[in-house]
Predict the 3D structure of the following.
Amino acid sequence: MIRKITLDTINNIKNRSFLEYAQIYTGREAATLENIESFGVPLEERQPPQKKEEILKKLEKAGAIVRNNRKSVVTTRISSACEACQTGTGSYTTYASLKCHRNCYFCFNPNQDDYEFYKDEKKDIAKELQELVDSGAKLGHLAVTGGEPLLFKDEIVEFFELAKTITPETYTRIYSTGDLLDEDLLLKLKNANLDEFRFSIKMDDSPQKIKHILGKISLAQKYIPQVLVEMPVIPGTVEEMKDLLLELDKIGIFGINLLEFCFPLGNAKEFTDRGFKLKNPPYEIYYNYWYAGGLAVAGSEEACFELVQFALENNLQLGVHYCSLENKFTGQVYQQNFQEKLDDTYIFSDKDYFFKTAKVFGKDIKRVRSILEKRMIPYSENQDYDFIQFSVHAIPALRNRNIEVAISTNVVEHNKGESILREVGLDWTTPDLFELRDVTGEN
């Protein structure tokens, strides 16, 4: 067992040097929470971690698959593209333009780099793909998103036709509202071997508009091997979402991705007017993530869990996949860390893809150093912060001793050709409580 060190738990640490060191991270947490509140949408009351775990265990008992370090939940099946997203290996997503005919209050595209330029301009995505393949990139999955990609039908067809020619084994998909889809385009996409079409449905659309999109989805079923819906689940829409799941199951689509609804750090009034609050705690690990979606809205995850339970209880055949905001972060961490080689005091965790190391502080250093030296276990010392550092694999050697151990979580950052190791979190444990699977997934 390990316990995350937070503002709520830090005062349980008895070792003074450990406590002082841990205050670095609780200080970071407090500053992050203060910064988040400055965006104008309040945080919900802080939620205990066991609440979520109880729900996940209930879903597992009902037959759900809880995956990616408990950040993703699946019923019957999941797109291979979602599986690949876990590490990001061999996956590439692009857009012709960020222009869109919709104006969704929760859109996060304005957070993306070069948004102001590409909301009016477009890229040569076929040329981009050719250069990527020519560079030797191995593409397992390839996607086009937007904006609304179907505003550029000719460019999209050209892109997938090129993909069919130069990387025929690559799994291809497109994300779209479906508003502009027609049978002629579907035939062209079929001939270009498009593997997957993902529709986005907006629950604040009129019933007539949603019915129109359901017709487009039924039409796509005739041409594209895998048709999915991917949409955020807005708190307060669970009953409407249940009706939608039943309709999609009747149509016979492959599946639906239920996304955790997010506040894109703008349009705060739109969110506060609807009574939304932000999930608290907002992150499992406080770090700068590439994903531009923003911050998770309180209540969306619980709504997604309820919909997964509904799908299981009603034996729906379509795959229902809950994709949390945290689920979208793991590919970044994996890509930053998986090729790096650190000294023997660190291990790469195949559970969450961070580097882990153990630290013991202050008065406990002398005893631990003696044990490590007797067993010829590598270690390093840091006199500035009064700790000794060693591999988590050595923690069992310290059993039956009254010692507090910090589990340090780390990520490698790359900047201008340099690699910098950054510690981003701490957990608390003792040698008698610790299990290796807590940090690696190993038994």
